[in-house]
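Form P-L/3: holo structure prediction, ligand S-adenosylmethionine.
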Amino acid sequence: MMRMFSYRHAFHAGNHADVLKHTVLIAVLRHMTQKDTALNVFDTHAGAGLYRLDGDYAQTSGEAADGYLRLIQQQNVPVAQTDTALPAINYAATNTPGSQPMAAALHDYLDLIASFNTGGGHKVYPGSPFIIQHLLQGRDRDRLKLFELHPTDAKTLRANIAQLEAGRLVTVLQEDGFDGLKKFLPPPSRRALVLCDPSYELKTDYARVTAMMTDALQRFATGTYMVWYPIIPRPEAHDLPRKLKTLANREGRPWLHATLTIKSSKLGHDDTGEVVRPGLPASGVFLINPPHTLKAALITALGQAAEALAQDKNKAFEVQTGDR
Ligand code: SAM
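OUTPUT (holo model):
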């Protein structure tokens, strides 16, 4: 019997974890789409695809306010002048003379999200399926496979994707993404990006990520793989990047590990002395076979994101790489 999940990404859309994940995803795909060869993209945990930031779910938790929306408000830096290919957003009102130019990867992230809000404002937040589809536009030979197990989210995702009239480019599969990936590897064109972004609601998700990655590298060692994970005080969460590092090193594949922390993970107290849980203080992405340009791009971007999203002095970021 299918297990029903209570996790709904709509509560979390646009939070600091999405800022990290989607900034990295966009930077990776910008690099991979520079070549004309057909690209296969697999999103093993796709979610509903599009979210309303003014909807009930998002407003209940208000997580975008501490993520994407805060980044927009806090950024007081001029756009990088090198990004001539990107659609322009007018940041002039908030520019501070002498301030550091906004990192290209962060600028690209904000521009892409803004392109879903053509009527102005920031009501819509695209999830990974729509971000990926946006970046594959005009590349007719590419294929995007979206796995989403939750019946409601899969239905919403299907309806959202249907509006794109993307034809054969995008397929929604209401299947287990950990298992479902297997049958598509290796892809005929031998070029693929796999995004693995589980909710980790089940403790077993951590082990399933490692098992999926071990199997995928056996089938297709040269694919680019990106795993998101929460940084929370739980042994499985702590061990996951270490296990992925060991796996990449054992297989002789290059890797990149990036983290973004916005606040302390310690319990706090409110004015009445009640214990306040910190929520999600940090998260990370682990990539195998990352683009060689990614490290430099992320160092500037995540430094600026950590400053803009900081909730206390524990804000931090890290970008580490390992070569074969
Ligand atoms: N990747 C999305 C994005 O960036 O917009 C967010 C995905 S959300 C963190 C995780 C999703 O995975 C949820 O919608 C959940 O219903 C779904 N899910 C949970 N377990 C799954 C599984 N085994 N296979 C496929 N989807 C699953």
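COMMENT: The chain has a mean pLDDT of 88.
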